[in-house]
Design goal:
Oligomer: single chain
Largest sheet: 6 strands, antiparallel, barrel
Number of helices: 5
Helix content: 40-55%
Structural class: alpha+beta
Radius of gyration: 54 Å
Number of strands: 21
Order of helices and strands: HEEEEEEHHHHEEEEEEEEEEEEEEE
Strand order of the largest sheet: 2-10-13-12-11-14
Shape: flat
């Protein structure tokens, strides 16, 4: 089907309208150029300032942990020694076995135990009479010797005190006699001064005093009393010395008669037989009649027993290391030594099991590790050991060395240091500023700031960026 369409005839645009369109186009181009210019200038302006990522100074709880590793060790080891000469019966453990407290480790042969027990009893009975007789006699001499020693000590002191007192009395007599003699001399001098007036009352009084003084020098009551007391004390001293001689004689007799050579040999032999071969043997036999048991939960780390073999006193039989009292042995470098202290709490991981512990010991001297570095040994006591602990394995340790609540903190990686100390780069008024800081404790992620920063400050967090103080930057704060 044919369609008949009429073609529209083109009509030339009105000049005024065309002029108007051209004008609008020019204005649009100019406006576009202006916008483009603003965009270009803005981009150029931004390209002039480096873009840095920042983090904010905040208040946080900061806990400092020292992570290290160590070796599980026991805090209690017992080596079992034989106390008797007996044949071994059954051995119930081998090296590496874990045992419980009270568990039988090994037994002695029953027949051998019975024979040794009977022999020990017979030895006691055989030597009982002679031993008791010698002891009784020796005790008597010991009592007499003790009495003599005590009395001699007292007598010596009494004699010394009495003789010193007599010396004091004699000195008092001498002093009194000298005083009276001096007084007499002074009276004679005064009498000579008044000799030209023999009828005077003064002269007559002086004569009387001279006569009284002369009498006093011969019959002074104090002197006579002292002399009498001296006589009494001299009698005492004589008695003390006589008793002293008696006690010396008793002492000599006791020392000489306490034990003669034969009695001493008999007493010594019987005592040794009873104590070592009888009483101690009997006690030791009775102690192992039901077998030798573990003193605590632990691991048998060494055993040298053979069934049927005969032990001898002092023979080492086995070693048991406790799993009830367990420690972790660690080594700390000089850089971490100031962080640890006795009593600090720790988290310990042993083969996937977690335990609580405390730093219980820090050695007082350093040793050298395999790398040649000086390290200081320390011990961590496990507070809640259980059956999952294996001695000798590696343990991971986290020591809670310090904790501060709500202190100013920044990420640890933003801390820089130079010869003058530690610092951070902060952004203030669009420019980099270098802030000297005093740091405190640090965790794995945060570092405490004691001085130098304020809460809310923006700190450059870009690592490795070449920054200079005064540099213009555009900060991009980290998202919260």
């Amino acid at each position: 089907m044919k369609e008949n369409k009429e073609k529209k005839e083109k009509v030339p645009m009105d000049k005024a309208k065309k002029k108007k369109i051209i004008k609008r186009s020019i204005i649009g181009v100019i406006a576009g150029l202006i916008v483009l210019s603003v965009i270009v200038n803005s981009i150029a302006s931004k390209n002039m300032a480096a873009i840095v990522n920042t983090t904010q100074v905040v208040r946080e709880d900061v806990e400092q942990l020292l992570s290290t590793s160590g070796t599980v060790k026991t805090e209690e080891t017992k080596t079992y020694f034989s106390q008797v000469t007996l044949e071994i019966g059954e051995i119930n453990v081998t090296a590496g076995d874990m045992v419980k407290k009270g568990q039988i480790l090994f037994t002695y042969d029953e027949k051998a135990l019975a024979n040794e027990k009977q022999l020990a009893s017979l030895r006691i009975q055989a030597n009982e009479g002679g031993y008791e007789s010698s002891i009784s006699k020796d005790n008597q001499y010991i009592r007499e010797l003790g009495e003599a020693n005590i009395n001699l000590e007292v007598l010596e002191q009494q004699i010394e005190d009495s003789e010193n007192y007599v010396k004091t009395l004699n000195q008092m007599i001498t002093d009194k006699q000298n005083a009276l003699a001096y007084e007499g001399t002074q009276l004679q001098i005064s009498l000579l001064d008044w000799s030209d007036r023999p009828d005077s009352e003064e002269y007559m009084n002086l004569q009387k005093l001279v006569q009284f003084n002369a009498y006093e020098q011969q019959h002074n009551k104090e002197i006579e009393a002292w002399q009498e007391e001296i006589g009494e004390y001299q009698d005492r001293i004589t008695a003390y010395k006589e008793y002293q001689a008696e006690m010396k004689s008793q002492k000599n007799a006791s020392e000489n008669g306490a034990l003669d050579q034969g009695g001493k040999s008999q007493l010594t032999a019987n005592a040794e037989i009873e104590k070592i071969n009888a009483a101690e043997t009997l006690s030791a036999v009775e102690a192992v009649e039901n077998g030798v048991t573990a003193d605590f939960d632990g691991v048998v780390t060494e055993i040298s027993l053979v069934e049927g073999a005969t032990t001898s006193p002092g023979m080492q039989m086995l070693t048991l290391e406790s799993t009830e009292k367990v420690k972790i042995e660690i080594f700390v470098s000089k850089y971490d030594l100031s962080k640890i202290a006795i009593g600090q709490e720790t988290d310990v991981d042993i083969a996937g099991h977690t335990y609580q512990g405390k730093v219980s010991k820090i050695n007082g001297m350093a040793t050298t590790n395999a790398s040649g570095a000086a390290v200081v040994g320390a011990e961590i006591e496990i507070e809640n050991p259980d059956e999952n602990i294996f001695l000798g394995v590696e343990a991971k340790v986290k020591i809670h060395t310090a904790y501060e609540r709500q202190v100013l903190a920044v990420p640890i990686e933003v801390i820089n240091s130079d010869k003058d100390g530690e610092f951070v780069y902060a952004v203030e008024d669009g420019k980099i500023t270098k802030k000297r800081v005093v740091t405190g404790i640090s965790s794995d992620t945060l570092c405490e700031i004691k001085e130098g920063l304020e809460e809310g400050m923006q700190i450059v967090s870009d690592i490795g960026t070449n920054l200079e103080e005064g540099m213009a930057v555009t900060a991009i704060p980290a998202e919260e």
